[in-house]
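Field log, afternoon session.

UNIT: design team B
ACTIVITY: writing a sequence onto a fixed backbone
BACKBONE:
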């Protein structure tokens, strides 16, 4: 069985990929190996190729599985993907480093690390500058998949309480669990809100001015999911008008890998109550190998059982 890999892969990594595919009984080929893909049944793709997936599907008459190397699949046009093709995400592959990044942002904001650093740089030494004690605070986690569960584990480890928004009921180690219908309740009662939802038809523009106003005046919001879950202008205005409210932003509305360029319509990084990072929360040593192995194991599961993990619900995107 042939596996087509659509990703820019260094030569040494290609050899590793071929051996890994061979170990599960598949022949791995790459886009640059040629365009005779008539007998390809499975495809692995990273983000840059997701936007143009339709042009590949038309050349793959036997394709049965699309497995993404990324956790998000929001760039795929599901209306153009035949129903007989199973689509699987790589949910969970980046969960631990992304969760660590999210909690690190929350801690840096709660302890005013960046603002105090800048004040000291300018000659201001305020030893009485207050910060927030995290133990006993309520963390609201929107989206309780791989990343959300890791965020929850880390928050519990420092003594925080936890409530979650999840498609499935969560009964262990949480103060409250509900679906999106309970979003207002979680926003109103959380000191920290972590966004780890997928971007789909139900979550796009989910957090608007109305939702932000329901949150506590001094809440800390961290987004490591997709920028478009939050209305960009509404978030900027809320941060500017409410200096006690803080935000950690790892994902942006215009990024090179998705829109072709990095552009910021609103000067978020000029605000003292914002910490930003360049969507690098999942970039740690060996993550590429680990993500590839995770995706490949799911291809193997599909090949052997026909029941892979992380099958995407098309109705969420169409």
């Amino acid at each position: 069985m042939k596996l087509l890999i659509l990703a820019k892969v260094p030569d040494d990594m290609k050899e590793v990929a071929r051996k890994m595919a061979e170990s599960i009984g598949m022949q791995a080929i790459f886009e640059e190996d040629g365009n005779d893909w008539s007998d390809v049944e499975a495809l692995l793709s990273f983000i840059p190729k997701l936007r143009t997936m339709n042009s590949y599907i038309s050349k793959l008459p036997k394709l049965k599985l699309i497995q993404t190397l990324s956790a998000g699949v929001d760039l795929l046009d599901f209306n153009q993907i035949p129903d007989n093709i199973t689509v699987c995400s790589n949910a969970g592959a980046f969960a631990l480093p992304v969760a660590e990044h999210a909690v690190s942002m929350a801690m840096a904001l709660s302890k005013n690390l960046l603002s105090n650093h800048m004040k000291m740089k300018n000659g201001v030494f305020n030893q009485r500058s207050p910060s927030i004690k995290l133990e006993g605070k309520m963390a609201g986690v929107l989206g309780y998949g791989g990343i959300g569960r890791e965020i929850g584990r880390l928050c519990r480890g420092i003594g925080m309480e936890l409530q979650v928004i999840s498609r499935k009921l969560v009964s262990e180690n949480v103060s409250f669990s509900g679906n999106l219908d309970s979003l207002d309740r979680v926003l109103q009662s959380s000191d920290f809100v972590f966004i780890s939802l997928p971007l789909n038809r139900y979550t796009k523009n989910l957090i608007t001015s109305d939702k932000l106003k329901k949150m506590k005046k001094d809440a800390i919001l961290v987004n490591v999911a997709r920028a478009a879950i939050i209305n960009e202008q509404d978030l900027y205005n809320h941060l500017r008008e409410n200096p006690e409210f803080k935000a950690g932003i790892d994902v942006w509305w215009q990024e090179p890998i998705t829109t072709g360029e990095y552009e910021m319509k609103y000067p978020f990084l000029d605000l003292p109550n914002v910490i930003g990072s360049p969507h690098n929360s999942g970039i740690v040593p060996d993550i590429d190998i680990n993500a590839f192995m995770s995706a490949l194991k799911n291809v193997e599961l599909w090949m052997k059982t026909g029941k892979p993990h992380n099958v995407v619900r098309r109705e969420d995107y169409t």
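LOG NOTE: The two ends are 30 Å apart (CA to CA).
NEXT ACTIVITY: expression trials, pending approval
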